[in-house]
Amino acid sequence: VGKCKKINFYIADFETSGDINEGMFVWLWGITDRKTSFFKHGNDLDSFIEYTSMLSGKKPKIYFHNLRYDGSYMIVWLLSNGYTHVDEITGDNQFTTIITENGLFYEIKYTIKDKTVVVHDSLKKIPIALRYMSSAYGLSIDKLDMSYEKRPRGYVATADEIEYQKNDVFVPAQVLDIQYTQGLTKMTSSS
């Protein structure tokens, strides 16, 4: 397979907590680019959405591994912050989704400032658990372990938790980079 043109994209992940009474929330997010040339993190969904407005390009693409989970937080945030779900984006504060009747998430698009952020599910391109990606693709970085105990709102992540988050975006970033280099640029592994 020939080399494809240079396509940049980002990989992000949320760590969440809460319960039915206090609501669910993001207490740590992380993002990197295709070449893992940087790592940025924050501690709430507001700061993540704001950060996406600063990504390069007019239509930055972000992958989440298992968008059904992380995307549900994004959709709640969008609806709670004045966004309207539409069939086609024609203006500000709008978003679209591609979600099957069975609840499979393929895409979320939303406008912010002068951008349309496109969010895809890397699980559709890499249909294995993040834990197995390193060995399957011969990577030198592995998924780390972390306690999934409940965190309170306003919790500040430890250095170890931030390192965990960094690996959780670096691993799929490296796998997606391999795929894109091989010309596998479609939304799913079968397309």
Which descriptors would you attach to this protein?
globular; disordered N terminus; 191 residues; 8-stranded mixed beta sheet; single chain
Tell me the series of helices and strands, N- to C-terminal: EEEHEHEEEEHH
Structural class, please?
A: alpha/beta
If helices are DSSP runs of H or I spanning 4 or more residues, what is the number of helices? 4
Distance between the termini: 15 Å
Q: Which helices and strands appear, and what pairs or packs with what?
A:
Blueprint lengths: L9 E10 L3 E11 L6 E3 L2 H8 L8 E4 L2 H14 L3 E2 L8 E6 L5 E8 L2 E7 L8 H8 L21 H23 L10
Parallel strand pairs: 1-4, 4-8, 5-6
Antiparallel strand pairs: 1-2, 2-3, 6-7, 7-8
Helix pairs in contact: 3-4
Question: What can you see in these coordinates?
Answer:
The protein has 191 residues and is α/β, with parallel strands linked by helices. The protein has four helices and eight strands; from the N terminus they run E-E-E-H-E-H-E-E-E-E-H-H. The protein has an eight-stranded mixed β-sheet. Strand 6 and strand 7 form a beta hairpin. Helix 3 crosses helix 4. It is globular. The N terminus is likely disordered.
Short recap of the structure:
The chain is of the alpha/beta class and 191 residues long. Helix content is 28%, strand content 27%.
